[in-house]
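Suppose you are handed a protein chain with no further information: no name, no annotation, nothing but its sequence. What can you learn? This example shows the usual starting point.
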Amino acid sequence: MTLAEIEQAILDCFTEVYNVKYVGTLKIKRLEPVGLEIRLGIMNDYKPMYISAELDDVQFLKYFKKELYDRNLDMVEFFKGVKSYEDDCLQKLDDRCGCHETN
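A reasonable first move is to predict its three-dimensional structure. Written in structure tokens, the prediction is:
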């Protein structure tokens, strides 16, 4: 199979398993001597998910579909938490540091 055919088969797997159209980044790399590595930029292209196996193309697509079923990616929610402070002193919240005492 060509990489374009594999890409289309992977997109079809998302439609079949989750009944959605995958619109994130998708990169496919052939492994030597045999196998594929799929890079999925689900929700965040800077922290991608990789699925890879040393299988021929047909077996890999079966494996990929099983991984989609097992991982339940349609139920996963991604969050990013950022803690912020009003000023530069991170210890202001902890009055034991003594940095805000007046003499």
